[in-house]
Design brief:
The chain is α+β, with helices and mostly antiparallel strands and about 300 residues long. It has helices spanning about 1-30, 65-80, 100-125, 150-160, 185-200, 225-235, 275-280; strands spanning about 55-60, 130, 140-145, 170-180, 180-185, 210-215, 240, 250-255, 260-265. The protein is about 40% helix and about 20% strand.
């Protein structure tokens, strides 16, 4: 009996296996559907690209977020003052019209003013774009025309020096304007130098004493001395190098695979190297013995 049960069960198991194999074969013969993972619509984070202009900023430790908010407000205020001022909408005079026409014109004028305010706000917000930097205490704001980073930063520091009641920041330290950004390699260094230095050193017609001050972060390829030598060569004659009594100072900032350059004036030291914190609250000088001198006790 046991042998007969085994013989009757074996065909049924074999049939099940054959049936399963047939199903698999049929599935393989059918056209396969190409399954695709749906792409998520991630917004592209702002980044620094060749051809950009902007402003580097440093801040207190762990205050990058607060500093970003402070700078956004500060830049927007100066944008309104320097680039958006005097743009009122005031060409909607009403003369010799009926009451209905006057009401319609007033309503249209109100809508025009609202639209103008929205356009101004949108334009103003687009002038400055914060870019996240993977370095502690360092920020970057991309700028768009008509913003000129060097003149903007100079104006901010000038106002801070001559009227400290205008202080609007707590965590912002140094601002470094960048006229032009490029890739951090020798070829791009030359291209950026020609674009930035040309109007100052070659088109002006005057002879300048100049200095070069590089800042390098998270970058190993180009060395400080090589940058200084190449930029000095591109500035060319009849200009001469003077590290202390310069007329123009060339700032070169290198961060990872990007570099930026600008030319600032001789009052860079007067404005505490564009360090707002030092302008508002200067560090007390030290005596020859290294002891901090308190002006109140002198």
């Amino acid at each position: 009996m046991d042998n007969e049960k085994k013989r009757t069960s074996e065909p049924s198991q074999g049939g099940a296996v054959r049936k399963k194999a047939k199903i698999v074969a049929l599935k393989l013969a059918l056209p396969q559907k190409q399954w695709q993972t749906p792409k998520k619509n991630f917004s592209t984070a702002p980044s620094i690209n060749p051809g950009d202009a902007g402003i580097w900023a440093t801040c207190d430790m762990h205050r990058e977020g607060l500093c970003t908010v402070e700078l956004k407000d500060l830049f927007d205020q100066y944008a309104q003052l320097l680039y958006c001022g005097g743009g009122g909408a005031g060409n909607g005079a009403v003369t010799d019209v009926t009451l209905d026409d006057a009401a319609a014109d007033i309503e249209a004028e109100i809508q025009q003013e609202i639209q103008g305010m929205q356009n101004t706000t949108s334009k103003q917000q687009a002038l400055f774009t914060p870019v996240k930097i993977e370095v502690q205490c360092v920020l970057f704001f991309k700028t768009r025309p008509p913003v000129e980073p060097v003149s903007l930063v100079h104006r901010i520091c000038e106002d801070a020096l001559y009227d400290k009641s205008l202080k609007r920041t707590r965590f912002v330290k140094r601002l470094t304007p960048m006229t032009r950004m490029g890739k951090a390699n020798e070829r791009s260094l030359e291209e950026v130098s020609k674009l930035v230095l040309g109007p100052v050193f070659h088109d002006d017609g005057r002879e300048w004493k100049f200095a070069i001050r590089p800042t390098i972060r998270n970058h190993q390829a180009m060395k400080r001395d090589d940058i200084i030598k190449r930029v000095a060569d591109l500035a060319g004659k009849p200009h001469t190098v003077d590290l202390t009594r310069y007329d123009r100072l060339i700032l070169v900032d290198v961060y990872r695979n990007i570099l930026g350059m600008s030319v600032v004036t001789h009052d860079y030291e007067k404005f505490k190297r564009y360090n707002l914190a030092e302008i508002y609250e200067p560090t007390p000088p030290k005596s020859e013995a290294g002891v901090t001198v308190n002006a109140r006790t002198q």
